[in-house]
Amino acid sequence: MTKGLKICGVSDPKTLNYILNHPSPPKFVGFITNYKKSKRFVEYEKLKELLDVNKKDIKFISVLVDPTDEILEKIKSLNFDYYQLYDVEPKRTKEIKIKYGIKIITALTISEEDDVIKYKNYLQISDIILFDSKGYHKSESFDHKLLDVVPDELNKMIAGNIQIDDIPSFKNKDYIIDLSGALEDANGKKDINKIDKLLNLFAKI
């Protein structure tokens, strides 16, 4: 059974407030913290204000690509439950986890099976393994059948251009489902109507 839902790339108070107060909220909300190439990137001062809310039972995730010590020190007091790390080796991941006392989502970008099995290097470190596409800030796909080699008991998340209408196909999969681009309008802004459709659909499966 599906383990939960994550809405990623939230960058404005109106969208966040809508999600927090929805009758069927997601388990996780992600914020792009240091990857400036992304249209979903949130500058530090704005992020600080954005996160100053009652998040209820929702877990807040800082999405970080190869973060420097400087950015980690800057955000350490913000209202995050997890750091989602791209392009961070196991040793560095462990150092970050211990130093900041934070739960870790290791994001692996997938195009072939050799990319998938890298999860084994993070088994003793990461709390969740995210299998994503190579697109980073672009909504690209990968073949989800590559994940058939991953054991059921692994706490895992899946992303990579997943669409709202794909949700029922994950009904019997033990993943946390991560959506971002599918919830945006033509201008790349989060669309409240699409978020509502997703949350209501997910609540029924």
Mean pLDDT: 94
Number of strands: 8
Shape: globular
| CATH architecture descriptor | Alpha-Beta Barrel
Number of domains: 1
| Count of helical stretches | 6
Low-confidence stretches: none
CATH class: Alpha Beta
Give the CATH H-level superfamily. Answer: Aldolase class I
Structural class: alpha/beta
Order of helices and strands: EHEHEHEHEHEEEH
User: Which strand order do you get reading across the main beta sheet?
Assistant: 1-2-3-4-5-6-7-8
Radius of gyration: 16 Å
Relative strand content = 15-25%
Please report the distance between the alpha carbons of the first and last residues: 9 Å
What about the largest sheet?
A: 8 strands, parallel, barrel
CATH topology, by name, is: TIM Barrel
Summarize the amount of helix as a percent range. 10-25%
Structural commentary:
The chain is an alpha/beta fold. The protein has one domain: Aldolase class I (TIM Barrel), CATH 3.20.20.70. 24% of the residues lie in helices and 20% in strands. The chain has helices at 13-20, 44-50, 69-75, 90-100, 113-116, 192-204, and strands at 4-8, 28-32, 59-65, 82-86, 103-109, 128-132, 156-158, 175-179. Strands 1-2-3-4-5-6-7-8 form an eight-stranded parallel beta barrel. Helix 5 (113-116) links the parallel strand 5 and strand 6. The longest helix is centred in the C-terminal third of the chain and has 13 residues, at 192-204. The protein is globular, with a radius of gyration of 16 Å. 34% of the residues are buried.
